């Protein structure tokens, strides 16, 4: 029953993400008037990354599990489950894309801060220079994926540690499945020690996440001060500031929602192994939140930014106008051809 519900959540989130993110890309590309070309490219890139992340979720079907002094990240029902090596690479790529999404969000904060505070600095986002910012996203995604694939790859000691638990919970052998393990402590000659691999995982991945959050919080503070002061000025400035305020709110929600639903629940799971608490916990709920994460970003833009609501109403109005015209054309056609029968 649990597995069936997980499949339902994953596929529902995937199709909804594909629908809304594709609609977001279409409206951004052809029906938004007050959004700059550079920021439109960012929105389209961010939405495309969300579709990619959601697609990988379906292909990989990741599972997370906390057990005593370790955290397990593996796959049992992925599309390439017959190939352990391919599944391991895809699990690492999945984690890398997650980091890229977080890094891409911080780039949007930087751009909007430059646009509001120092418009001249936005020149560094235009044209071919945009490659540097995609490079920023790629580098931090690569770092996260590399750490996962190299330092969370289980050695014999880690596989033996989780072997009995995995067989009891999932009826599989830890040596036969694509698996990554964050195991905090090792033991040799009855002496416990902190494993070097676990320290690299924690400080490396948490360092990437902390850096992105620091950037977003600093930019968010600067944006809030600037937009608040502009809203107290002339009416013309207010019209411009309202647009900036909407995007600022959207960025805040895009930061707050995944923080509450994904990052905050996940961070304790990463640190739990170091407390070596004796428990076994299937973290299905966190995986569900990862599945709906890309969908939330597009829904926030639709709900907060008025340009998208206006574009949707305009498209609906055009459809309503075209329906009578099509009906009239059909009546004329059948009326003219009745005499030929």
TrEMBL record:
<keyword id="KW-1133">Transmembrane helix</keyword>
<feature type="transmembrane region" description="Helical">
    <location>
        <begin position="285"/>
        <end position="305"/>
    </location>
</feature>
<keyword id="KW-0472">Membrane</keyword>
<dbReference type="Pfam" id="PF10326">
    <property type="entry name" value="7TM_GPCR_Str"/>
</dbReference>
<keyword id="KW-0812">Transmembrane</keyword>
<feature type="transmembrane region" description="Helical">
    <location>
        <begin position="12"/>
        <end position="30"/>
    </location>
</feature>
<feature type="transmembrane region" description="Helical">
    <location>
        <begin position="202"/>
        <end position="224"/>
    </location>
</feature>
<protein>
    <recommendedName>
        <fullName>Seven TM Receptor</fullName>
    </recommendedName>
</protein>
<feature type="transmembrane region" description="Helical">
    <location>
        <begin position="89"/>
        <end position="111"/>
    </location>
</feature>
<feature type="transmembrane region" description="Helical">
    <location>
        <begin position="251"/>
        <end position="273"/>
    </location>
</feature>
<feature type="transmembrane region" description="Helical">
    <location>
        <begin position="42"/>
        <end position="64"/>
    </location>
</feature>
<dbReference type="InterPro" id="IPR019428">
    <property type="entry name" value="7TM_GPCR_serpentine_rcpt_Str"/>
</dbReference>
<feature type="transmembrane region" description="Helical">
    <location>
        <begin position="131"/>
        <end position="152"/>
    </location>
</feature>
């Amino acid at each position: 029953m649990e597995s069936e519900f997980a499949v339902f959540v994953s596929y529902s989130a995937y199709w909804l993400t594909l629908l809304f993110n594709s609609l977001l890309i279409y409206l951004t590309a052809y029906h938004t008037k007050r959004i700059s070309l550079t920021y439109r490219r960012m929105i389209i890139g961010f939405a495309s990354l969300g579709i990619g992340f959601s697609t990988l979720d379906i292909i990989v079907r990741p599972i997370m599990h906390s057990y005593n002094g370790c955290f397990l990240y593996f796959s049992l029902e992925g599309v390439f489950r017959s190939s352990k090596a391919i599944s391991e690479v895809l699990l690492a790529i999945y984690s890398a894309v997650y980091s890229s999404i977080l890094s891409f969000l911080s780039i949007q904060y930087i751009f909007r801060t430059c646009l509001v505070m120092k418009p001249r600095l936005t020149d560094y986002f235009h044209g071919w220079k945009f490659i540097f910012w995609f490079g920023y996203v790629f580098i931090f995604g690569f770092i996260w994926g590399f750490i996962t694939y190299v330092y969370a790859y289980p050695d014999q000691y880690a596989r033996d540690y989780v072997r009995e638990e995995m067989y009891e919970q999932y009826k599989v052998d830890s040596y036969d499945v694509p698996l990554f393990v964050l195991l905090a402590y090792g033991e040799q000659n009855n002496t416990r020690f902190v494993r070097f691999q676990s320290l690299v995982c924690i400080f490396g991945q948490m360092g990437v996440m902390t850096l992105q959050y620091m950037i977003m919080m600093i930019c968010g503070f600067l944006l809030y001060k600037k937009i608040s002061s502009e809203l107290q000025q002339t009416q013309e400035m207010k019209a411009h500031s309202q647009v900036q305020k909407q995007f600022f709110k959207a960025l805040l929600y895009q930061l707050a929602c995944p923080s509450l639903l994904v990052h905050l629940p996940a961070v304790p799971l990463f640190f739990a192994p170091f407390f070596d608490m004796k428990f076994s916990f299937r973290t299905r709920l966190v995986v569900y939140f990862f599945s709906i994460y890309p969908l939330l970003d597009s829904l926030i833009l639709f709900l907060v930014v008025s340009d998208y609501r206006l574009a949707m109403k305009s498209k609906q109005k055009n459809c309503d106008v075209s329906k009578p015209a099509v009906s009239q054309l059909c009546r004329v056609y059948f009326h003219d051809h009745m005499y030929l029968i």
